[in-house]
Amino acid sequence: MSNDNTTGGGGLARRLNPLRLPLRHRLGLLGLAGMAVLPRLVSTSFVVTLSLAYFWGVYAMSWDVVSGYTGQISFGHGVFFAVGGYTSALLNLGYGIDPVLSIPVGVVLAAAAGLIIGVPALRLRGPYLSLVTLVAPLILTQVFIFRSDVFNGEQGLSGVSPLFGLQTFGGEVAFYYVAFGLFVFVLAVLLLVTRTDAGAVLTAIREDPDTVAASGLNPSKFKIMAFVLSAAIGGLAGAVIVHTPSGNASPTTLMTITVNVEVIIAAILGGMGTIVGAGVGGILLILLREQLAGIAWTVPVIGQPVSDINFLVFALITLVLLFVMPGGIVRTAIIAGRRVLDRGSGEDTVATDGGTAPARRVYERYTDRLRAAFGGDDR
Amino acid sequence: MANILQFFVQSTIRSGLYALVAIGFTLIFGVGGVLNLAHGASILVGAYGVYFSVSVLGLPTAVGFLAGVAAAGVFGAILYLGLIEQFTTEPIMVMILTLVTSIAVELLVLNTAGAQPVAIPQFASGNFSLAGTNVQFNQLAIFVISWVIIGALFAFINYTRTGKAILAVSMSEKGASLVGIDSHRINLITWVIAGALAGVAGIALGSQLAASPVLGRTPLVLSFSIVVLGGIGSIRGSVVGAYLIGFLEVFVIQFVSSDLSGIAPLVVLVLALLVKPEGLFGRELAE
Amino acid sequence: MSADTHDLTDTTTEEYGPDDGLLVLDHVTKRFGGLTAVDELSFAVDEGEILGFIGPNGAGKSTTFNCVVGRFPPTSGTVYYDGEDVTGTTAHRMVKRGLARTFQEFRPLEDRTVRANVALALTPDKLFSMQGLSGATRQRANELCERVGLGDRTELSPNELPHAGLLRLELARALATDPKLLLVDEPFAGLSNPEVERISELLLELREEGLTLVVVDHNMRGLLSLIDRAIVIQFGSMIAAGSPEAIRTDAAVREAYLGGDEL
Questions:
Q1: What pTM does this model have?
Q2: Residue C4 — pLDDT band, cuts 50, 70, 90?
Q3: Planar angle of CA C11, C16, C21, nearest 5 degrees
Q4: Helical H runs in C52-125?
Q5: Which domains does chain A have, with CATH numbers?
Q6: In CATH, what is the architecture of C1-108+179-263?
Q7: Which residues of A touch chain C, with CB atoms under 8 Å apart?
Q8: All domains in chain B, ordered by first residue
Q9: What ipTM goes with this model?
Q10: CA-CA distance, B42 to B28, in Å (whole number)?
Q11: pLDDT tier at A104 (50, 70, 90 boundaries)?
């Protein structure tokens, strides 16, 4: 299991002593500390961007725990964001319930949605399950359109009370800490789950469920747990974001096909099956999008400014990154850092972070094919 | 009674279109075992290929149709050579990449042709009355084209060398290569044919209403439902599936509520996946 | 050492009860569509023996095996384990009851080290457990690797292991679940003769330690000195049972293998 490297004994207290942590963990903590003081250093508009970025970090992490770890790719994670967000917003608007109470209800319903989608996952393998997750948001969208008297269709719901009664204008920093706090909380919870025994079981399920069963572990139980946990966290992010200026209870914030795909892209870019990578990927995705929005340069053939086609750019970047850093940004950085410091094998292996990324294998296949193609001895 | 007749006429017309929409998807699913989420994009390429040729470049309609179908076929080839071939054993990766591709194509169309629906020339103009229902000649043409294509595909697969090779690859790629079939070439041919058929479907869809950048979305979901219902990779199954879904949709529109027409195939899809994942005509997955 | 050897003629269907052995199959049948892969098969595995379960390719060995380990339920018939009806029990529950298996095609988790593969089987089946964070699991996994002869290769990835190494890893993973009965699926396929001997020795040692073993194979190669008793099946039915020597000379067995595999 993870952290196999530490020789016996020790105990948790010693393990959590910051000075004894491996370098990358210390760097991570340093990074979090830096993010905590950031609002003092940067402009308000950047604070607003970062707040949204944290929510995307949580979106991507929630996706990662089920898809990156168990290998059951969800194409419709927006369903969970939407169930959480709309539930909280509707309770708040309809019954005047305070967000602090309505958000947990959203989380519970999202978890229930996770159960509903997770149970079929026990019978359906691979692509067939993905099909169900792909269709789930479409069904929800149809429901939203059908009952637009309740859900207000494409527009979504407005006039939802902000969390803790904060002011939209002037409260940017406070909302920053709401988003940042959520990010840190979710990161901690998911690290706890994935770095203890469950993480090793989840990645084992991704590799071979039959081997897991032959090891005396119940794959179904762990799959369901991953789905419910993932859905609950996605629901939490959705429920919180509708009570902040970063988003509102609308399909654009929570569940359009673009949201669903960008979550996947974020996690792949950062590094599937690592939690940390997905979190970083989510943040980077928003920062990148913000950067692209500022580029006024017009792409020649299409005749459109870069800012209008940022998704196209993402798609291209994803493909390129699959070649350049198949394990995602975070894994690549760790490996590169290790090489620089020459710390080699004494440290945790990559398997700690959820094993060789599927993308890695894809990459190897790509290079093999290219070699074969140029080598010329093939077909 | 008139109601019932009307129901049958409308269902039959719609089902023919749906069979046309699903058949390329089935072909790829059956032969390569690939869930092609860019099927909607191929449909889009077909429809907008015609739009650009005819409305922008001013080519004759017939040439435009050929250009649209050819563009979709080429798009299929690009997809296969550029993406799919590298990921044949990674179905999930294929799904992600084809999904990203399809959204990218959608956005490309949106950014070049705009969000406004554009008109696609019809196969035939005018209309006539059948059993009290007003039927456009264009709809009739689509119905006929649908059956001509189904028939041609059946004949192609069962009676030509290439078609038999496609069948062999669909059963076992390993076995096929043992008897000297170049599965790479066969897969490429399949993708081109499937792309071209999607192109035809795109033109048909666009000519009935109009084409917009989201033209490919509903057909993609429909194809899924049809293929899962009919059984993975069975052409006969998907034709039956198309008719079931077509009749179901018209039934829901006519007798329940037109607002629910979009949700009916989705519900059928989920139920089919849960109850009978192998579909009506699929091969039973035994150990 | 020697277990009670059933009479050679005793191959017809006979009633078996739950207490006739550690593992008992009573009229187990498995059909796939129209194909009957296992046909009314009954036999018992006695505690402490090494039973050879033999048949030509396609005889239904793997299907029988899968019905027992819970990969899929039999169409009809009963499986008893340790005196209890366990028909249709899922795979992970059978493992917890003490019935472990190896995969013929070797299915290690290729994303982690040899030791981590074994450690997974030591992990408790609980959603939240931090056992792995203590050094105990690691140490136990090391011991098990040592036990099967992989002590110096714990840090390797499974795809760096040779064929025999993968078999040893399969055994280590199975042993990590603390089984009473171990089903070993075609262990000797692809092994050289010295390797066969070494693995046989290991299996005999495990039996000395109290393990009951069922070794599945399509021929008798390597089994003669290993097993106490053999059962031969063909077309899903038993055609012979008895001591290895008796099996070799049995007429029905010879006919079954005629022109096909060598026994």
A1: 0.80
A2: very low
A3: 100
A4: 61-69, 91-97, 114-122
A5: 41-293 (1.10.3470)
A6: 3-Layer(aba) Sandwich (3.40)
A7: 1-4, 6-10, 12, 15, 193, 196-198, 200-201, 203-204, 206-208, 210-219, 221-222, 225, 349, 351, 355-356
A8: 2-114+137-275 (1.10.3470)
A9: 0.82
A10: 13
A11: very high
